[in-house]
Amino acid sequence: MPFSMSQASLPSFEISLNALSAILDKAAAYAAVKKIDPAVLLHTRLFPNMFDLARQVQVAADNAKNGAARLAGVEPPRYEDNETTIDQLKARLARTVAYLKTLDHKEIDSSADREITFPLGPTNKGHMNGDDYLNHFLLPNFHFHVTAAYAILRHYGVDIGKSDYLGAIPMKTT
């Protein structure tokens, strides 16, 4: 059985978004123990020209919901980028995971050869077939922002590691 577009995208999005939510729990606990205002964590960035933690989480969620919706050929829900707390960011991630579960796998699977149009900044649009869009644009962008959020918190001192980043991946052990 060939590996489908929905199999290549939806589980990866769900596992990573849930892992990101769990990492945010650890960030909240860290802030409480260290007596740090959680807002400080949300505004932390790795370098001045990079997005802060809150924006990295927002963009990761947007990549998952918007990209999967494009592949399914439907209009995604719009989220305001107004989260100011860890709990609000976690709610955004949970909304995104719930939305992904509503998408038609067959529509996503049939998108491999369909042209996908997507924004590239405020004025430009990109065009790729679905297979290339998923593999060469959507997944790398999504994982970039999840990784950046992880890196910000790790750099700040939150006790997280690779297993936190990977999340609850389906695995058999011997």
CATH-assigned homologous superfamily: dinb family like domain
Q: What integer value in Å does the Rg equal?
A: 17 Å
Q: Give the mean pLDDT.
A: 95
Number of strands: 2
- How far do the termini sit from each other? 25 Å
Find the CATH topology.
Four Helix Bundle (Hemerythrin (Met), subunit A)
Explain how this protein is built:
The protein is mainly alpha-helical. The chain has a single domain, classed as dinb family like domain (Four Helix Bundle (Hemerythrin (Met), subunit A), Up-down Bundle). The protein has seven helices and two strands, in the order H-H-H-H-H-E-E-H-H. It has a two-stranded antiparallel sheet. The longest helix has 30 residues, at 5-34. The two termini are 25 Å apart. The mean pLDDT is 95.
Can you lay out the helices and strands and say which pair or pack?
Layout: H1 5-34, H2 38-42, H3 53-72, H4 86-100, H5 105-109, E1 115-120, E2 124-129, H6 130-156, H7 162-166
Question: Which properties best describe this structure?
Answer:
174 residues, Four Helix Bundle (Hemerythrin (Met), subunit A), 7 helices, 61% helix, 7% strand
Gist of the model:
The chain has helices spanning 5-34, 38-42, 53-72, 86-100, 105-109, 130-156, 162-166, and strands spanning 115-120, 124-129.
